[in-house]
Amino acid sequence: MKTGLLPWQQASFEKWLARSGYFPPALLIHGPSGTGKVSFAMHLARALLCESAHGKPCGECPACHWFEAEHHPDIRVLDPNQPADDDHQAKGNGQILVDDIRSLQDFLALSSHRLGKRLVLLLHAETLNLSAANALLKSLEEPTPATHFILVTHVPGRLPATVRSRCQSLLLPGPRREEALQWLVEQSIDRPETFLDLSGGSPLDALHLSRMDVGSRVSWLKALSDPHVSLTRLSAMTSKIPVKEWVDWLHKWVHDLLEQKVTGRIRYHSDLSELSTRISHQAGLYDLLVLESQLKEAKRWLHHPLNERLLAESLLMPFMTMR
Ligand SMILES: [Zn+2]
Description:
Blueprint: H1 10-17, E1 26-30, H2 37-49, H3 62-68, E2 75-78, H4 98-102, H5 104-109, E3 118-122, H6 130-141, E4 147-153, H7 161-164, E5 168-171, H8 177-186, H9 192-198, H10 203-212, H11 216-224, H12 231-238, H13 243-263, H14 273-282, H15 285-301, H16 308-316
Parallel strand pairs: 1-4, 1-5, 2-3, 3-4
Helix pairs in contact: 9-10, 12-16, 13-14, 13-15
């Protein structure tokens, strides 16, 4: 679990400290995707549980050490994207389910181990399904003393209004482009601008993409656009790439083709602008719009088991006529 503040969060944290010191029973941290909200939430959690009472995590007390080792007994983290490795975690199916919320009951009923404070962190809170949200609402409406919930999301609007209204809201702005680039340079990634564009301006996603992208994105998109590469060969190439990755590349590719057609600019695959200019001239606007919505739909199924070869062929087929 990432902790520690990112450079562009320093001001928000100072502002938070300058408040009265009151920590609300429920806090909703929201802001743009891929900008480090989880790191910030973990930093607040660590500050709350730190036993030095400085407001900032001291890094030296037992609580800080436990926190670092991910063994602090008074915190629970629900992350729908983490596979379950014990009874306290969500099941990794992309949603926070009612059982995940119920599994907190024992934790909330026991007395805390250290300072008397207890903390529950809900990551990707927008994935709470309706019954989970209702179960959570009960806890928020009848708060256990010294218990704090921190919810983290990039789409607060997807949370039920009843849950939102119980939370104090904290908007965490993302970095400016120069700040994001500076940080990426410090992470020593190659072509930071390319990956920042590819991520749509989210530095953490850019870092992730740069680590995943060992030349396969560029060669795959070139193959997709090469009339000499058959659908069979393309499918074989595609089967070696995680489905989440190539569907995302393809979605951004279609977005670029559309934008190229309409505005003459592109947003994501900025290192392939010549290729996208050529393909966008050959592609029909209507076909691209249909593909855009098919890809959006495909992204929603990715959590379910699916036949990846069929998915690849049905999504890649239309590109054969564009090259
Ligand atoms: Zn400490």
